Structures are given as C-alpha cells and as structure tokens.
Predict the structure.
Amino acid sequence: MLVGLRLGLLGALLGSLLALGFGFGRVQRSLLPWAETWFPEAMFRVAVAEPLVVLTIDDGLSDRTPEILDLLDRYDAKATFLCIRDPSLTCPRGQPCCKR
C-alpha cells in the first residue's frame, strides 16, 4: 500500500515537473528537497568534477541513430546508450550502431 502511494506520488511529481518545463526553470529545484525526502532510494543529483550534460533518447535505434552518433563524435562527446534488445541488430540503414 505504502509502495503504491509512493510510486503514485513520484509519478505525480514527475508529471508536474514536465508540465512546468522541467529543465528550463527553477521551479523543479525547489521540489528536490521534498522529492529526496519522500524517495530516498531514487537518485536526483550526482556530484561531478566538471560540468556535465546528460541526454536520454528513448526512441531506440532508428535510421537517425548514425546521425546522432556522428554528432557526438564531432564534438568528442561521450555517451551511454542502454539497449534493451539484441545488440547485434543494426540500424535501418544497415549500419551497426551498438559498436560505435
């Protein structure tokens, strides 16, 4: 019961942050202490030595994946892709993506 309530609250919090323009203002920062208190098992912040940008692309492999990888390579940007399907699959263009 308590787990369901906490998951519901987390969903409401995340939905509210998205509705308020998560990442584009300061409203979400004021909610962090509350979220960290209610959801101590969740990770909301990570200490880093240098400025860091983290992107998530949740659409999976597509015909645009090689373009994204080329752009990351051009700026010497590091990336981690979490693949939830067979890593031997290739992009629609036939180019292997998971080995880059």
